[in-house]
Design goal:
About 5% of the residues lie in helices and about 35% in strands. It has about 1800 residues and is mainly beta. It has a 35-stranded mixed sheet that branches. The chain has an 11-stranded parallel sheet with strand order 3-5-7-9-12-21-24-27-30-34-37. Strand 108 and strand 109 form a beta hairpin. Helix 14 runs antiparallel to helix 16. The radius of gyration is 40 Å and the shape is globular.
């Protein structure tokens, strides 16, 4: 079903539109609010036309009257009532006094509540005007024929235009890098057949609402409750119903209410609609195209009488069908930069101009800084992918290779909305269909201001207890839920329904909401949720337990403290192709132990259900409220607390014992705390991309990731994520099984400023979890085919050495050697830092990783043992101190002994054992000697843990001589046991199968292996096995009778007594399969078939549900599953069989299954082939040779490529990775696919930014050292060490294939400063050496008048030619502009001084590029008297926040300092005294201060406060050190330690400025006491780079400073008004005594005056002078030439005089005044003058003809400027004027006028209080 264009492009010129009489944009500008007309809640662009598209040549009544008035807004037209609705055209359009004129340029008196003057049904709100007129009798006549809204294909094409995308966009495709995108297929909407094709309002036998005959008498009056007559079908047109609405409309069974597709739209205002019959708008084949609106207008106080919503009950049907779109949302195809008005989309859309769209955020913490943006479409390109917006974007929205922001259509033709009057109460409308017989079908409906906050069941769109039958009939498709108060789409007690292609934006609470846990088999696909707000305090907490909540008024469902985009308590549903942006998490899977609420009592356990489908979903910008949260979150628990009958919720770790698996496929996440955070027992992830997250995933239970790409840092680099560490993956410390298979980590490097002592502040790939001695790892972690791209290998593994068991036993298995050494197929075991993990001569210690590394060879595996030692063990969770060590007292409390390897040398390889259970984890194939300084209890239990098949350890335990033993194996859950006979010596035990022991008088010997496990205990994914550490059922009991005791225990030897090393024997006789490291025996239970087979009774296996694996009572000779589980394997193991079994019961060889697949590919791996060992039939996986062609699908991409390093890689995949580690070397890494084929040559061309020349060369093959598996190719630059900025590569392979790459910005940062040295002065040439010169954009000398010096590339020189020697200033300054924005000012005072002369030596002034906002304060927690704030800096150079104070208005009035906490927040309390507001004062280290007021009601959620505008980096340069030096013969100033008095360091000044050598300076270049240096703008940075002009008079004389503009010399900045304001106050001297204090005072004053003059743009006001007495301020209101002056002298005087006597007028100034001076005075204005201004010529910053002294405004002393001056540098940029900052007090000459002003003057006495 196609969607036809809805609106015409009004921004196009009229010639584009083919209808000659259609309205034009110029017409709309001729009437007040012409572009801001609304009707029925819809923006209505067609003000003059008969249809809302505006393309129809017919005119409505207002259009005809407008034409008759000569297409001009006249008083007569204003006073007309064109549509006869009782309101004049002026009252409807916001000009009730008829005073607006187009020529004035001023807005009309009212810009809100603008209604349509040509439609009777569109009127202003009654709050604006009282209702005036009811519908005249007979005035409503429905159109004879509804005009077709469809446009022909040609007409629709005419509505397109050419929209040019910005130059240089990097376009990305729709496909992701790794995952398979889940894209919609089939029709726009899925509609069941049988709903009819006739338009509902055109049916036979319909009756009209506005006719009395329909009602058997009179038409219902406004405000009445209405019941549709039984058996009738009643149609509503635009003029049928009363504008003020009705009470309840009841539609009984058999009756029908229809809203017609009226070109004028229909607006039905009502308090409640109850449907037992049918309520209908459109049909699937006849959808409505014209706007339809239903407003629910009941107030909360009327809740007992009216529900303020739509209720469908019984057999009622609600069917709403609006015109659909081919896409309701898509994604960006390229990054949209801030300030851009054009976006490029991935999909061709059929949206229309004027429709509203939304672009999602590209930062992490969108609840703290909302960067989601709503715009209207201004134009659409003919390709339907390039869209022009009605106004520029404020923020950057990323559309890069890794991820792209979503773009959603918010407009729908049908609108359900709550009344604006209820907005403050968050009490909107709602819709609900309830019961198994009800039906709710909604397509293309928008809900706005819907939902009733914290009221159960009052949700915008709600299916309620419809079960399967009602769910199958009902659906929500292509809906939009915008600005809603409580959820959006609720499926409650309903199954088998469809929620498809919907959009939700700016909502509170869980958005797509499955309520009770009973909802199953529903399909949620291709939906978008964005900007979701938690209700109440977002759940946080500092530990895994999270935070707990109980229902209260703030959140009636406490789970809403963790509001998510999709809330799925029962995973047995299908979610595919959905997107979540924002929220506490994007997708939430909470634990429900039982079904809840109305579904309570069902025989259903939601937490045990497997995931039916979760495929192709994305989530971003969430998970930041809690350290363990994620964009996808499995955890948290909701339950009904029996003690108080209230809902309770905990947000933290809660296990999900799923029967079956949560299979997550094709998931993309970005900007997350963790991409996936799961406490679930069984999670398998396949095809997973994560970018710009602090961690890829946090997984628990048995879990795996197969095929993952984690990009640590992308080109997006959002400010709120940049400073956070990137941690690839953290293996858990106990009771899990975790593996990473086919994973790639990209773009990680060491943080320059990281804390070396704290791993949490360090980037890393693999991290350990090592804080505990109570919880310690078994062999539970493994990796396979792990790839590192652009990763510092030093951070591949980051360990934190602690004195804990978890740290000592840390380990994981590198299954194929890819982690340790990618060039080898050898597997490795990575252990902790202690010698215990040194397994022999083939092991080594990595000081880089603080870990031992041993090859994983046959017989060497990670295994563990546990013991039950009565009297010696306890659960002790003792924590280390800040040094990660225990105290001696803690050690004595915790330690009981150690386990060491056999042998005198190996005895040093030991592991401390403690009182906590889980005795030890280590390497198999060796001897373990256990020594306890407390002796051994007489009865102990020994239990092997996660022993792979066929491996063992020899365990030795010290006992006194003469001890006798009873040793046997015991089954924990039964009576089965087997006694161990004693053998002569340990060699005999070593040669046995492990069911014997020996004692040599000192040591008891046992051979421990896996033979006592009763079921296959391996978890396998992708060819990796992890053996379970769960209880196997069998243990070995040792009962000892000893004569020598230590208390109740057998006494230990006086010293540890390790046995001798093992001999050459000692292999299990049954390890015939273990001779090949790559052996992969099959599992006994078929893989991934953990759901109970059909026909099996669940109760039969109930005893095994805890682990849900096949188990059986122990038998001596077989390895089969219990018949109750109906899973008997026909492939028993041959690797670990009991040799004592009779031959007839021995397992048979596996040739019966292996040979049929020999030389085939049973594992769907195109670069692996199966083969068999003839003697055993064991299957082996053998990799194909490198270079072998391969094709198929390797779960990464569809490929036609080449085998290399064990994988099939397509040639089309990117295989060149830039490695700009040295700025003078071009270096690239080559990927495995090309290494397999062979690289013949790589040719490179590159350019340098400041040289118009390219260089070329051929890259040579190099080795990359032993730490990386790939060679690299490098090119040493030969042109004087230039840094390559743009690099192009041509890669030629051995098969002659060529590939081309272009790296536009090879290296984009410079961390050092270049060296600048003076070479000499010859004549007028000053020669400097700058190294490296390639970092530099240009160099200027302060005397050069703005012309850059010549850059001499041949010998890295800079030559500055001055006009004459006399032109040199007293202390010249060299200004260097680097490419990335850093500027350096370096003084050379001896250029103009003779050798031996005194000179001031100063340090160079290095300043970063200025930014307009340094810090933002974010509310992290707030209640009426307690606040927690976190400052966020936007740049490393930002002034840091040093303290924050609170002032509680209406309370004590005293400042309350907030305490600073180590986690970076300021928090404090006003002692329960906050009654009106709080004032937050933020002080920066550079003296800047910001005062922010927060009035009640306080924010209810996290949100950002305004930007903390401290001092700009460029405003006040750091005070350099100053010493007295002597000029040398080489023109260098050699300094001493003595501080020179009276020598000031000049600040930069641009050419042409007052006081600069090239400016209007009567003293030539020198000025008085020296001249300021020049800091020129970088021409490449655009016109918004400024020159800062700085002068002041010596001795405190008055100065007048003129704003200077840089850039376009033809532009002009005009002064609208020059103002002189005088404030009372007696202590301003303190405010003007220092530079910082004066700047803060000026900023506060400017803030107040901007507010009083109602100026939005801060750049509109320039303060030129401040003078004490009391305080006199000169200032100017400026604007750009070609724009309208914001104020006139008269209007400025009027606005200021209105506030003159009020102390509240200058609140910011008063606050700063009191804070600095200590005065308690309230400031008020006592005098003011306003005069017309003069233009400022942007070419020299002066009025035409030279400087204008303050335009005649005197300072009260006959001079036209004050004693103290503050300058704001001004530059025109686009349509605005940008004020970049205050410069400060500077030394210069007096430029004053003694002429008194001629402006208007007014005087007031200050108000007295």
């Amino acid at each position: 079903m196609c969607r036809h264009a809805a609106f015409v492009l009004l921004f196009l010129v009229s010639s584009v539109i083919p209808w000659a009489n259609a309205q034009t944009p110029a017409d709309l500008d001729k009437i007040p609010n012409g572009r801001n007309v609304f009707h029925s809640g819809h923006h209505w662009p067609a003000v003059f036309s008969t249809t809302f598209r505006g393309v129809d040549p017919g005119k409505n009544a207002f259009g005809s009257d407008f034409a008759a008035a000569g297409a001009t807004w006249t008083v007569a037209l204003c006073n007309q009532d064109s549509d006869l609705d009782g309101y004049t055209n002026g009252e409807e359009l916001g000009d009730p006094s008829c005073s607006w004129t187009q020529a004035s340029g001023a807005p009309p008196s009212r810009t809100a509540d603008v209604s349509h003057p040509g439609m009777w049904s569109s009127t202003p709100l009654q709050s604006t005007f009282p209702a005036k007129l009811q519908l005249p009798a007979g005035a409503c006549t429905p159109p004879a024929q509804i005009p077709s809204p469809a446009l022909t294909a040609n007409e629709r094409l005419q509505l397109r235009t050419t929209v040019t995308a910005p130059v240089g966009l990097q376009l990305v495709g729709k496909s992701a890098q790794l995952v398979t995108e889940r894209l919609p297929s089939g029709p726009d909407v899925f509609i069941p057949s049988g709903l009819g094709t006739t338009c509902p309002h055109q049916q036979a036998n319909v009756e009209l609402w506005h006719l009395g005959a329909t009602w058997g008498g009179s038409v219902p009056v406004a405000g009445a409750d209405v019941t549709i007559p039984a058996g009738k079908k009643v149609v509503v047109y635009s003029c049928s119903v009363a504008a003020s609405g009705y009470g309840r409309i009841s539609i009984p069974s058999g009756a029908e209410l229809i809203l017609a597709d009226d070109p004028s739209g229909v607006h039905l205002r009502v308090k409640e609609i109850v449907v037992d019959g049918i309520f209908r708008i459109g049909t699937p084949e006849c959808p409505t195209h014209h706007p339809m609106t239903v407003t629910f207008a009941a107030a909360r106080a009327e809740a007992a009488s009216y529900q303020n919503g739509l209720l469908v009950q019984g057999s009622g049907r609600a069917e709403f069908f609006g015109a659909t779109a081919n896409h309701t949302w898509t994604r960006l195809r390229a990054t949209a930069e801030a300030g851009s008005s054009v976006i490029v989309l991935q999909d061709a859309i059929d949206w229309s101009v004027y429709e509203e769209i939304m672009v999602t955020t590209s930062i992490w913490k969108d609840e703290m800084d909302n960067q989601n943006e709503v715009r209207r479409i201004a134009a659409i390109d003919t390709n339907q992918r390039v869209v022009q917006l009605d106004r520029p974007l404020w923020f950057r929205h990323y559309g890069g290779l890794e991820y792209q922001s979503e773009v959603a259509l918010l407009w729908r033709p049908i609108l359900f909305r709550g009344d604006q009057a209820n907005h403050a109460d968050s009490y909107g409308g709602h819709t609900i269909a309830m019961g198994v017989n009800a039906t709710y079908r909604a397509v293309s409906v928008r809900g706005e201001r819907m939902g009733q906050l914290n009221i159960m069941a009052k949700y915008p769109f709600h299916m309620h207890m419809m079960y399967g039958a009602g769910g199958q009939r009902s659906y929500f498709q292509q809906l939009a839920c915008v600005h809603c108060y409580y959820r959006c789409y609720t499926v409650h007690g309903t199954n088998d329904t469809l929620v498809r292609k919907n959009v939700a934006f700016n909502t509170s609470g869980h958005t797509y909401y499955l309520e009770d846990g009973a909802e199953m088999n529903n399909v949620l696909e291709f939906n978008l949720a964005a900007f979701i707000h938690p209700i109440g305090k977002p759940a946080a907490g500092g530990a895994q337990s999270g935070e707990s909540f109980t229902e209260d008024e703030g959140a009636i469902l406490p789970a809403d403290h963790t509001a998510s985009g999709f809330y799925i308590p029962n995973p047995y549903n299908r979610l595919r192709g959905n997107a979540a942006s924002g929220g506490w998490s994007g997708f939430s899977f909470p634990v429900f132990d039982t079904t809840l609420k109305l579904s309570a009592g069902l025989a259903l356990i939601p937490k045990e259900k497997p995931m039916l489908e979760f495929d192709g979903n994305t989530a971003h910008s969430s998970g930041y409220f809690w350290n363990d949260a994620g964009c996808i979150y499995h955890g948290g628990r909701l339950w009904l607390e029996a003690s108080n009958n209230k809902w309770s919720y905990t947000s933290g770790r809660v296990s999900q014992p799923t029967i079956g698996w949560h299979n997550v496929t094709n998931l993309r996440t970005w900007l997350c705390q963790a991409g996936m955070a799961s406490w679930g027992d069984r999670v398998d992830m396949t095809n997973f991309e994560c970018s710009d997250c602090t961690r890829s995933a946090v997984l628990f239970g048995s879990s795996s990731i197969t095929n993952m790409l984690y990009t640590g840092i992308t080109k997006n680099q959002p400010y709120d994520m940049w400073s956070y560490v990137r941690q690839g993956f953290q293996f858990y410390d106990t009771w899990v099984q975790t593996m990473l298979v086919n994973v790639t980590f990209r773009n990680f490097w060491r943080r320059i400023s990281e804390n070396p002592g704290n791993k949490w502040f360090r980037n890393s790939i693999i991290m350990d979890l090592d804080h505990s001695d109570k919880f310690k790892p078994w062999g539970i972690s493994a990796t396979k085919n792990l790839r590192l791209e652009n990763v510092d290998r030093a951070i591949a593994l980051r360990r934190w050495i602690r004195e804990t068991g978890a740290s000592r036993m840390y380990n994981f298995v590198d299954w194929d050697g890819s982690f340790v050494n990618n060039a080898s197929c050898q597997a490795y075991i990575i252990g902790s830092d202690i010698e215990w993990w040194n397994g022999g001569a083939d092991c080594w210690y990595s000081s880089m990783w603080l870990a031992w590394i041993c090859p994983r060879v046959p017989g060497r595996e990670v295994i563990g043992i546990d013991m039950d030692l009565p009297g010696l063990q306890a659960d002790l969770d003792i924590q280390t101190d800040s040094t990660d060590m225990l105290t001696q007292a803690q050690r004595e409390q915790l330690y009981i002994g150690h386990i060491s390897q056999f042998g005198a040398v190996a005895a040093q390889r030991k592991l401390i054992i403690t009182r906590n259970h889980h005795l030890a984890t280590g390497l198999s194939g060796i001897g373990w000697y256990m020594y306890s300084s407390f002796g051994i209890p007489t009865s102990i239990q020994v239990e092997p843990k996660n022993f792979p098949r066929g491996v063992y350890i020899m365990l030795a335990i010290s006992y006194p001589t003469g001890t006798t033993f009873s040793v046997y194996a015991k089954y924990r859950w039964g009576n089965a046991r087997q006694t161990f006979p004693i053998l002569a010596d340990r060699d005999a035990v070593l040669a046995s199968n492990g069911s014997y022991y020996s004692f040599d008088g000192r040591h008891l010997y046992l051979k421990l292996s896996d033979m006592w496990s009763t079921y296959p205990n391996s978890y396998r994914r992708g060819g990796v096995d992890i053996y379970s550490a769960m209880n196997q059922g069998w243990y070995i009991q040792i009962d000892a009778a000893c004569s020598q005791k230590m208390g109740a225990n057998c006494a230990p030897p006086s010293q540890p007594d390790p046995p001798a090393e093992l001999g050459s024997g000692g292999t299990l006789p049954a390890t015939v399969c273990a001779s090949d490291a790559d052996l992969e025996p099959p599992t006994l239970c078929p893989e991934r078939t953990d759901i109970l087979p059909a026909g099996a009774a669940e109760s039969n296996c109930s005893a095994y549900r805890a682990n849900w694996r096949c188990q059986s009572p122990w038998t001596a000779c077989t390895r089969s599953c219990h018949p109750d589980c109906q899973r008997i394997s026909k492939y028993p193991y041959t690797c670990s069989r009991n040799e004592s079994c009779p031959a007839s019961t021995k397992p048979f060889a596996r040739a019966d299954w292996c040979y049929p697949v020999m030389n085939q590919n049973p594992l769907n791996d195109p670069c692996t082939i199966a083969t068999c060992r003839p003697e055993t039939g064991a299957m082996l996986r053998m990799p194909l040779a490198s270079g072998t062609p391969c094709a198929g699908n390797n779960k990464l991409v569809s490929i036609n490529g080449t085998c290399g390093y064990g994988q099939c890689v397509a040639m089309e995949q990117s295989n060149v990775y830039p490695q700009p580690s040295d700025r003078r070397v071009i270096r690239v890494l080559i990927g495995p696919a090309w290494m397999a084929v062979g690289v013949a040559s790589i040719a490179a061309t590159y350019s340098v930014a400041h040289v118009n020349q390219t260089f070329s060369g051929v890259l040579a093959r190099k080795t990359n050292g032993s730490s990386s598996f790939l060679p690299y190719y490098s090119l040493d630059a030969t042109t004087n060490g230039d840094v390559a900025r743009r690099v192009s590569l041509v890669v030629t392979l051995s098969n002659t294939s060529k590939f081309y790459y272009d790296f536009a910005d090879w290296t984009n940062s410079v961390s050092e400063n270049p060296s600048i040295k003076l070479l000499g002065v010859v004549g007028n040439d000053i020669t400097l050496a700058v190294s490296p010169l390639d970092w530099v954009s240009y160099v200027t000398l302060s005397t050069m008048g703005g012309q850059p010096c010549a850059l001499q590339k041949d010998d890295a020189r800079v030559v500055c030619t001055v006009p004459s020697a006399s032109a040199l200033p007293d202390s010249p300054v060299v200004n260097v502009q680097l490419h990335h924005g850093v500027r350096i000012a370096l003084p050379f005072p001896c250029l103009n001084r003779a050798a031996g002369a005194a000179c001031p030596t100063t340090s160079p002034d290095v300043r970063a590029k200025a930014t307009s906002c340094h810090s933002t304060l974010v509310i992290e927690g707030i209640d009426p008297w307690y606040i927690t704030l976190r400052p966020y800096q936007t740049a490393p150079t930002s002034p840091k926040v040093t303290n924050v104070t609170l002032l509680a208005q209406g309370a004590s009035g005293a400042d309350v300092p907030l305490s600073f906490y180590s986690w970076g927040v300021f928090a404090g309390s006003t002692v329960n005294q906050m009654t009106k507001a709080i004032i937050v004062k933020t002080r920066l280290v550079n003296g800047g201060e910001e005062t922010l007021s927060i009035t009640l009601p306080l924010p209810k959620k996290w949100e950002s406060l305004p930007c903390v505008q401290g001092l700009y980096v460029d405003d006040v340069p750091p005070v350099p050190s100053k010493t007295v030096g002597t000029c040398s013969a080489s023109k260098e100033c050699v300094g001493s330690a003595q501080v020179e008095a009276g020598i000031s360091t000049p600040a930069p000044a641009p050419p042409g400025a007052v006081g600069s050598p090239m400016g209007n300076n009567t003293n030539g270049g020198g000025g008085t006491n020296g001249t300021s240096a020049t800091a020129l703008p970088d021409p490449s940075l655009g016109t918004d780079t400024v020159s800062l002009t700085t002068t002041s008079a010596p001795g405190g004389g008055p100065v007048d400073i003129v704003p200077i503009s840089a850039g376009n010399a033809s532009a002009r900045v005009l002064v609208a008004v020059r103002l002189r304001i005088k404030l009372n106050g007696t202590k301003f001297a303190a405010c003007l005594a220092t530079q910082g204090a004066m700047i803060r005072l000026a900023e506060a004053l400017r803030s107040d005056v901007l507010r009083l003059l109602k100026l939005v743009n801060r750049s509109s006001l320039v303060i030129s002078a401040l003078k004490e007495g009391s305080l006199i301020a000169n200032m100017s209101v400026v604007y750009e030439n070609g724009t309208v002056a914001p104020v006139t002298p008269a209007s400025a005087q009027a606005m200021l005089m209105q506030q003159a006597n009020q102390t509240s007028a200058f609140t910011a100034t008063s606050s700063e005044y009191r804070a600095t001076s200590g005065s308690t005075e309230e400031l008020a204005m006592i005098e003011m003058e306003a005069a017309a201004g003069d233009p400022i010529d942007s070419s020299n910053g002066q009025p035409p003809g030279g400087p204008t002294p303050s335009s005649g405004i005197a300072d009260g002393s006959g001079n036209s400027c004050g004693t103290y001056c503050i300058l704001f540098a001004v530059v025109t940029a686009g349509a605005g004027v940008i004020v970049l900052g205050a410069v400060g007090i500077l030394v210069g000459r007096r430029v004053c006028s003694s002429t008194a002003g001629t402006g208007t003057k007014a005087s007031h006495e200050p108000a007295r209080y």
